[in-house]
Structures are given as C-alpha cells and as structure tokens.
From TrEMBL:
One of its GO terms (cellular component) is plasma membrane. InterPro entries: AAA+_ATPase, ABC_transporter-like_ATP-bd, ABC_transporter-like_CS, ABC_transpr_LolD-like, Cell_div_FtsE, P-loop_NTPase. The keyword Cytoplasm does not apply. The lineage of its organism: Bacteria, Bacillati, Bacillota, Clostridia, Lachnospirales. This is Cell division ATP-binding protein FtsE. It is a peripheral membrane protein.
Length: 234
C-alpha cells in the first residue's frame, strides 16, 4: 500500500526534517506514527499528499511512484486518499450534509448519488440526526466526525489523520479513535499521526516512533533502513 524507501527531506532553511527514512505499510493496516513536535511526522504526511517533494528517496502508494507522477495527475491521486486534520476545516456556513457532500460535488458526483451516499456516511459516523446542523451547533467531537465523514465519502483506500484528537477532550478523543478503528475493520488502511502516547498504548496497534527526522525503537535508538520497513512496536 505505502512504500517509503530511504527518504530524506531538507528544507531551504537547512532544516533536515527527514533522514533516510524507510517504511512499509500494508493494505488494511492501522498504523500510528508517533513523535513530538519537530520529529518529522508532519513532513512525512505532506510527502504522502505530494504537497512536498523529497530531497532524495522514493515513495510509492498503491504501486504509484509519486516522484514520477505528472502534476496533472496529482488531484486524481489525492482523491484516493482521505485526509483528516486537527483543526477540522469545516465550511462554517454550510450544514453537516453540505460539508460532507462538498467532497463529492467538487469531483462532479451526480446529485442523485449524493442524496444516497451522504446520509449513509452520516449514519456510519453516528450523525444522522445532525444533518441539518451547522458546525457552530456541534461539539468538537461531532465536528471531527463530520471531517472524517467528508474524508471517507469518496471511498479512499487510505485514511491519513494528522492529530485527529489534538483539540478534543479525553472522552471525545477515545470516541474518535474507536470510530477510526471501526473504519479500519471495514478494510480502509488508516495512518494516524499523533503525539499522544496514552491513546496509542490503549489501541494496541502498530506504532512507528519518530524523533529528529529518523525512525527509532522504543529505547530511542536509530533503526537502519533495512529494519525500518516492517518495524513493529507495541
């Protein structure tokens, strides 16, 4: 599903955000990428979204080499990814229904399909009764559920979640993680970027730890690219 092969990223400022990172995530996995601020995890996500290009190394998603992908194919590639951000990024002047439907409207999905698919997606995330509500009328946890529904509405192969519980209280954070687990059980590959060790420990999933641009083991020691690819920590 995702192959990251000896990838490094150095910004124009000279900051070496990633240093020789290798990682393989299989189809249907649920993986946490954990690290403190500045560890390189967000840079890694931007590379997967092709918002940035690596300084060196190769990234493949679904056998597509991102380094060889023409720019005109990038929008189509991104439609195969569901993305959830910490700040929700909802359209404040649109209802829950319209927020989720927006992701389908921008790619030309017919209205009759939207009328069927959006209610089903809202049912899955537990918001059927809130379809007419506006974001300001929702709790933080409910807003994040809308964001997840919008990320999933086009049936992506991979869901990337960047600090999806960062702005939530403990109860809502656990509810969102439970929902992501259910989504994974339905077959979607889920990659969660987080700094919350508490949530990670409770989930019992595969954990990739990053620090200062490298993948480390649970003692903080560097893992060579040969060992990194399928490293498993729990």
């Amino acid at each position: 599903m995702i192959e990251i092969d000896r990838v490094s990223k150095t910004y124009e400022t000279g900051n070496k955000a990633l240093k020789n990172v290798s990682l393989t995530i299989e189809d249907g996995e649920f993986v946490f990428i954990v690290g403190r601020s500045g560890s390189g995890k967000s840079t890694l996500m931007k590379l997967l979204l092709k918002e940035l290009e690596p300084t060196k190394g190769r990234i493949k998603v679904n056998d597509m080499d991102l380094g060889r992908m023409p720019r005109r194919y990038v929008p189509k590639y991104r439609r195969g990814l569901g993305v959830v951000f910490q700040d929700f990024r909802l359209l404040k002047d649109r209802t829950v229904f319209e927020n989720v439907a927006f992701a389908q409207r921008v790619i030309g999905v017919p209205g009759r399909v939207i009328k069927e698919s959006v209610p089903e997606m809202l049912r899955m995330v537990g918001l059927s009764a809130k379809y007419k509500a506006y974001p300001r009328q929702l709790s933080g946890g409910e807003q994040q559920r809308v964001a997840i529904a919008r990320a999933l509405i086009n049936d992506p192969d991979v869901l990337l979640a960047d600090e999806p519980t960062g702005n939530l209280d403990s109860f809502n954070a656990h509810e969102i993680m439970r929902l992501l687990d259910e989504i994974n059980q339905r077959g979607t590959t889920v990659v969660v970027i987080t700094h919350s060790h508490e949530l990670v420990e409770e989930m019992g999933k595969r954990v990739i730890t990053m620090d200062r641009g490298i993948i480390t083991d649970d003692t903080g020691s560097y893992i060579t690219p040969e060992r990194q690819r399928f490293y498993y920590e729990n």
